[in-house]
Amino acid sequence: MTNNMNGIIGQKTKELFSRPKSDWSTIDQMIYEHTNYFEMPTEKAESMRFLSIKESLNHHYKNSKFYHQLCKEYQFKPEDITSEKDFQKVPLLPDTFFKEYPKENPRAIYDWLKKISTVNLGNYDYKGKDMQGFLRWAEQRLEGLVNHSSGTTGHYSIMFRDKVTFQRFYFAVVTTLLNIPPVLEDKPHYVYPGSPNTFLTIGKWLGEGGKVFPPEQRHFLTEQEISMTIARLLSTGYAKSFKEKLILRGLKNAMVKGEQKLLNLLQELDKKGEQTIIVTPPFQLFSLMLKMKKEGISLSLGESNSVVFTGGGWKIFENKKVPINEFAGVVEETLGISADYYIDIYGMSEMNGLGVSCKGGFKHLHPWIHPMILDDNEGHLDFGEWGRFAFLDPIAHSYPGYIMTGDKVKLLKRCPVCNQKGFVLEGDITRMAGAESKGCANLMRGLMAEELSKIQSD
Amino acid sequence: MTFLKDWREKGYFFDLNWARTFGETIPTLLFLSLRHPLLVLNANKGCKRGPRNLQPEKLPYTIPSFNDNMKFYDSNERYLRQTFLCNPLEPEIISMANKLGAFKLSDREYSEKVFKFVNGNIRIDFSPPKSAVDCLKRGHGTCIDKLSLFNALCRVAGIKSRYRLYSSQGVEELYNIYMSADPLVQKWVDTLNFFVLHGSAETFVDGEWLISDVSADFYHAPPNKLPIPHFGEDPADLWIKPTENLWTPEGLPIGFRFFMSLPFMMFRGTGRAINSNILSNYNKGVELLKDLDIHEYDVIIRKTYRPKWHDSAKKASKVLHDLK
């Protein structure tokens, strides 16, 4: 991993996402002072993580009436934590908790949010009735970031990050990703084949994160707004009315055309030798690469130090899933980017941290995340066993980031392949039996499924 | 007015505890039934072939004929006397008690034997309420029926025994067998986050009230990797626990049989669906226990078993819901 944070992009990252040193706690030191996160000495990472989580627990216990009550239910107090082993006692929230708002209307969601939030939201003065407007209002109120899942199951997960959480998280994520290319040019191109104009998690995150790049260097598949209704429409593929059918058809056409547009763009950037940072769900890039193979197109983006990041998993394309090494081979063959610079990312809307794949395909977790593996009875399992992924996330300031997910993982204490430090997850992450299919990258299924099948059957 | 006092003591009236239990649960069921009439309709249509009850073709035990030499304890003392649906002086109860060792074994040994008999031989099912003796003669019943039988067999041997009634929360495995069998019951339990009524026993042995649960037969446990219940072991530590309105009456109220029969008339399909699930689980258990010693199984499973309460994932939601 390099240190690319001294250039223009690095400066912009600091400008957008830094926090005043006077407000720092241990987690801020971890994020802002030690930016080569995967090289932090193990002992130091352990002690800083321990302190960060202790401080975080105190914060939520003291300031969140809801979490305080939950702790009482579990007969837990932050002072019960005297060693890392005690983290097993921390009351966890299931990830489904964040979709349990009572009704899908602004006032009801505000009341729900007020109850679960650790920070003060102020009075409700939103005058509108639509959800999209409300999310915008909430984001301004929090000076942070609001995002929602695709609503595949009929309910959205809604996450509200305040300014503190947002800045910490974005600084950490952008710094992590920008340190991966061998050299970071002053004006690299940033390509995300989706819409940034949305509160849908992946689009929202990549739209906001992309702001460290100059506007003329950012490229999206479409600028069309993906509202909550459209997100659900796309993820379920079910149009209830004629109007929705028209919207769906329009979007589908836009996406299919967009794929060609994206290919044209990549060809142009390749021709000019411009450094390109591509961030995309894997199946979407795979569809494009199959198209390239079919049309006999190959690029040499690697020569300009370009990088590919995939994230969001294969979701409903699980049956078409390609092993990471094979995928990297196709990236090299079509885009000309070597396997070292194809990185798969593991993340989720509730976690302020990532798992970044190494050359062995293991996902390295950010050092502030305390991972845990649970069995069917929510008992704690040891390293090397498959189970439900849960974590303690001390970055979360506006909500308790102690989450039990629906992902089935195997956790290792260190990477068996590379020298980077910290906990790793084995590459093959699936959903636990009974857990609902999840992920906003799932969104494109209605649009891309046919195309992908068409190309694969050719 | 002695009889009024007696009746009150025996729990013959629907008192505040019953009012609270039903007041908190029945309106929800009625509301759900009105709101989702299709659920009721489908429940009644959907499982026509499911068993109405799980009465075994042949009883796995024999009830000896009553004779005058058989001993029994006849007293009007609290927790030893007859209460509604629990008559310890029925001839079949007396003869079965004698067969099980009443007046020969110590109170603890005898109660434990009765506990094993009821748990090992009387099939749990979802069927209209019946008396202790009917439960014995038919070989099946609900948790309350089995509890009445257990109480009767203890009382006839001079061992005080009473009902421990409560709204309950079970472990995930129980939820999967009983509640998820029918969408209406599932919705009801999901809405309340508990089940309306469950009964365990409290038996007075060696100077203390011991809690035991005779509801789930032993065959229930192995397919679900649950431990085998022991006599004197509170199920709240293992697989079913009180959530609301716990009380310990001497007996059941008069009218209990009528009122508790109503759901079986209204939601016939629901009962059949649950019985189908129980039967399938029972058959699995019988199959597993063919190759497995029940005690050995219990010792092994207890080493790793931790109850996974159905509400554990919902605890946060419940806290949030209760937050003012």
Write structural notes for this entry:
The complex is a heterodimer of chains A (458) and B (324). Helices cover 38% and strands 14% of the residues of chain A. By secondary structure, chain A is of the alpha/beta class. In chain A, strands 1, 4, 5, 6, 7, 8, 9, 10, 11, 12, 13, 14 and 15 form a 13-stranded mixed beta sheet that branches. In chain A, strands 2-3 form a two-stranded antiparallel sheet. Chain A is globular. Residues 437-458 of chain A have low confidence and may be disordered. Chain B is of the alpha+beta class and 324 residues long. Chain B has one domain (2-323). In chain B, 48% of the residues lie in helices and 12% in strands. In chain B, the strands form two sheets. Chain B has a four-stranded antiparallel beta sheet, sandwiched between helices. In chain B, strand 4 (195-205) and strand 5 form a beta hairpin. In chain B, helix 5 runs antiparallel to helix 7. Chains A and B meet through helix 4, strand 1 and helix 5 of A and helix 13 of B.
Rg measurement of chain B, Å: 19 Å
Order of strands in the sheet with most strands of chain B:
5-4-3-6
What is the count of DSSP helices of chain A, taking H or I runs of 4+ residues? Answer: 13
- What would the average pLDDT of chain B be, to the nearest integer? 89
| Subunit organisation of the chains | heterodimer
Order of helices and strands of chain B: HHHHHEHEHEHHEEEHHHH
Q: How much β-strand is present in the residues of chain A?
A: 5-15%
Q: How far apart, in Å, are the first and last alpha carbons of chain A?
A: 39 Å
Inertia-based shape of chain B? globular
The profile of the biggest β sheet of chain B is: 4 strands, antiparallel
Q: Low-confidence parts of chain B, pLDDT < 50 over ≥5 residues?
A: none
Spatial extent as radius of gyration of chain A: 21 Å
pLDDT < 50 stretches of chain A? 437-458
Q: Provide the helix percentage of chain A.
A: 25-40%
Distance between the termini of chain B: 47 Å
